[in-house]
């Protein structure tokens, strides 16, 4: 199993980033996928969730209306479009397949004020 997150970086408050997660080693199209984040000295939290076919999505209240999760099952990739970023969005972002016991290395997002 591999989950490789990319797309993080340094951005000013109000800016945008698009994260990608390339998956392999399992049947991607059958799995609900999630994005989590972990800020310094805080617990990992669920940010967004998308069903296996992409028909259903869920978001944490803190990102609702600003972040959009999507997936391309042909490319085994899940995305997180992040708009109107805030300094409190600063964290390492991870993708996760529900039911698959594996975490990637994550990608760091830093939002400056």
Short description:
The chain is mainly beta. The chain has strands at 2-6, 9-12, 17-24, 33-38, 45-50, 57-59, 67-72, 77-82, 91-97, 107-112.
Question: What would your notes on this structure say?
Answer:
It is a single chain. By secondary structure, the protein is mainly β. Helices cover 0% and strands 50% of the residues. It has no helices and ten strands. A six-stranded mixed β-sheet has the order 2-10-9-4-5-6, with no helix packed on it. A hairpin with a 4-residue loop joins strand 7 and strand 8. The model has no long low-confidence stretch (mean pLDDT 98).
Please report which band the strand proportion falls in: under 5%, 5-15%, 15-25%, 25-35%, 35-45% or over 45%: over 45%
| Rg value | 13 Å
User: What string, H for helix and E for strand, traces the elements in order?
Assistant: EEEEEEEEEE
Helix amount, in percent? under 10%
Overall mean pLDDT score? Answer: 98
Query: What is the makeup of the main sheet?
Result: 6 strands, mixed
Number of strands: 10
User: Ranges with pLDDT <50 over ≥5 residues?
Assistant: none
Order of strands, widest sheet: 2-10-9-4-5-6
- Measured distance between first and last alpha carbons: 37 Å
SS summary, helix count:
0
């Amino acid at each position: 199993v591999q989950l490789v997150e990319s797309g993080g970086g340094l951005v000013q408050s109000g800016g945008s980033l698009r994260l990608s997660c390339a998956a392999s080693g399992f049947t991607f199209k059958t799995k609900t996928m999630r994005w989590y984040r972990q800020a310094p000295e805080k617990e990992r939290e669920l940010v967004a969730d998308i069903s296996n076919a992409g028909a259903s999505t869920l978001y944490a209240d803190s990102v609702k209306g600003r972040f959009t999760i999507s997936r391309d099952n042909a490319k085994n990739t899940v995305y997180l479009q992040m708009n109107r970023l805030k300094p409190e969005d600063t964290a390492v972002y991870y993708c996760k397949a529900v039911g698959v016991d594996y975490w990637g290395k994550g990608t760091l997002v830093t939002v400056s004020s």
